[in-house]
């Protein structure tokens, strides 16, 4: 190698070394990151000085909430008034509770009102779906009956049979004059293109990707994804949960087998909250077809007794981790039992400490994770983290009957939260998520019964199993755990 060439490469190396130092300073002093994430990124920069720089550019930068459009014009005009009125009533002790559960959990309701402007609706009826075929049968039938509008928002839309069936049905409704909108995440649904959507768009439907790349190949915000799953039909029926749009959710992929998830069909006031969330997300994504408030989107719901629900959203556009804080508040509030189902279990230290304290205090803590995973490295980290609970008396199950993708937290058979958020750092801090918090004994008990039916299809992970891991397995799990804040 000539002296000139060596000098050139030396200068390039010095440049990246200097950039690494500058980036490390920025991460330490200017980026708002939790300590585990901070140290993980510093290690990446130290051990991968060139590659780490580019990894941080695409995956590590803090989301700037001012990048989102100002959307105050699109808010439901009475939503903030409703929330402020409820906030005043709760703080002054004059709020009218329809059940003892909401009265007992008034602190959680108050926190959600303060941090998320999440009104409590107390007139909801729900259907619980754990099988994709049942969920999509119900959704497709509701779409067929739609008269005014159909609003769909999904993280993943595959280019496969189920998605084609859905688009065919949506195109048919669009030709009938039903306003039909499809919002999909640009990274989660990266196979979707205009060619795939042609018939739907030509029929009058509209589709938008959420936060697509401005460059042809790379997406500088690919780490911040819209993970929500929402459907609203005519402003009276809403769906939310864990199912995306794809054949695997019908159990048609041999890699996963049966797909076990949790999804809800809701009628009542909570549909307005789902509608409002959809409209905000649509207007963030759409530059050509923004939507303004219309009364047809918020018809008056039936005033029947039902479950009390708050829809809580969180994402990198907020400094508060609203859903994670809701999880933490519920765990700390538990007196008898905590049942968790999640495909990925990588919570932060506050959730882990709360679960450990609960289990050591004699509370029945039971957690279920999949036996197999769609993300092996994340699953390895999950197995490492969850082992820390085994010596506290908590029970851990691995689901064997296919792939477990359900995201539920059930407390004392009184309250349950489910939606798009996993029990992991990505859902807590990086993804745009949405969960319903349901204050209802009947619904929470039904969810708990489903949990224990799944226990019959699972194996228990014991402290002996954890201690008897091979050295190579321990090494893999420790490395995955170390990198967990980046996942």
Automatic annotation (TrEMBL):
Pfam families: PLDc_2, PLDc_N. The chain crosses the membrane at residues 12-30, 36-59. Residues 222-249, 400-427 form the PLD phosphodiesterase domain. The active site is at 227, 229, 234, 405, 407, 412. Its EC number is 2.7.8.-. GO terms for molecular function: cardiolipin synthase activity. This is Cardiolipin synthase. It comes from Planococcus lenghuensis.
């Amino acid at each position: 190698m000539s002296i000139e060439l060596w000098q050139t490469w030396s200068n390039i190396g010095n440049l990246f070394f200097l950039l690494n130092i500058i980036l490390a300073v920025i991460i330490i002093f200017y980026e708002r990151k939790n300590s585990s994430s901070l140290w993980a990124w510093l290690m990446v920069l130290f051990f991968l000085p060139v590659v780490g720089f580019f990894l941080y550019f695409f995956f590590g930068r803090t989301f700037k909430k001012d990048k989102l459009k100002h959307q105050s014009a699109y808010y439901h005009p009475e939503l903030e008034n409703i929330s402020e009125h409820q906030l005043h009533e709760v703080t002054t002790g004059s709020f009218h509770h329809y059940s003892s559960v909401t009265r007992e959990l008034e602190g959680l309701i108050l926190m959600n009102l303060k941090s998320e402007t999440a009104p409590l609706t107390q007139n909801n009826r729900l259907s619980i779906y754990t099988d994709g075929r049942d969920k999509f049968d119900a959704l497709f039938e509701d779409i067929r009956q739609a008269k005014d509008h159909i609003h769909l928002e999904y993280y993943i839309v595959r280019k496969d049979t189920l998605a084609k069936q859905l688009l065919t049905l949506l195109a048919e409704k669009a030709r009938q004059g039903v306003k039909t909108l499809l919002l999909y995440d640009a990274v989660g649904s990266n196979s979707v293109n205009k060619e795939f959507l042609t018939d739907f768009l030509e029929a009058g439907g509209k589709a938008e990707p959420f936060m697509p790349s401005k460059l042809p190949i790379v997406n500088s915000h690919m780490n911040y994804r819209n993970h929500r799953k929402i459907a609203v039909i005519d402003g009276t029926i809403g769906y939310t949960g864990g199912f995306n749009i794809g054949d695997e959710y019908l159990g048609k992929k041999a890699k996963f087998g049966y797909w076990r998830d949790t999804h809800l069909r809701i009628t009542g006031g909570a549909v307005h909250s789902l509608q409002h969330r959809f409209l905000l997300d649509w207007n963030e994504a759409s530059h050509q077809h923004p939507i303004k408030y219309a009364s047809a989107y918020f018809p008056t719901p039936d005033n029947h007794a039902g479950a009390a629900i708050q829809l809580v959203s969180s994402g990198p556009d907020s400094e508060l981790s609203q859903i994670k804080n809701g999880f933490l508040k519920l765990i700390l509030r538990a007196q008898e039992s905590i049942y968790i189902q999640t495909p990925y279990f990588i919570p932060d230290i506050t959730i882990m400490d709360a679960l450990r304290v609960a289990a050591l205090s004699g509370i029945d803590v039971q957690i279920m994770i999949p036996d197999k995973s769609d993300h092996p490295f994340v699953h390895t980290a999950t197995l490492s983290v969850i082992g820390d609970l085994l010596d506290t008396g908590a029970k851990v199950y691995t689901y064997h009957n296919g792939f477990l993708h359900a995201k539920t937290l059930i407390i004392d058979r009184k309250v349950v939260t489910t939606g798009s958020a996993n029990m992991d750092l990505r859902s807590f801090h990086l993804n745009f998520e949405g969960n319903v918090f349901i204050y209802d004994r009947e619904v929470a008990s039904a969810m708990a019964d489903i949990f224990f039916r799944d226990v019959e299809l699972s194996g228990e992970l014991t402290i002996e199993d954890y201690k008897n891991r091979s050295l190579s397995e321990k090494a893999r799990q420790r490395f995955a755990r170390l990198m967990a804040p980046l996942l």
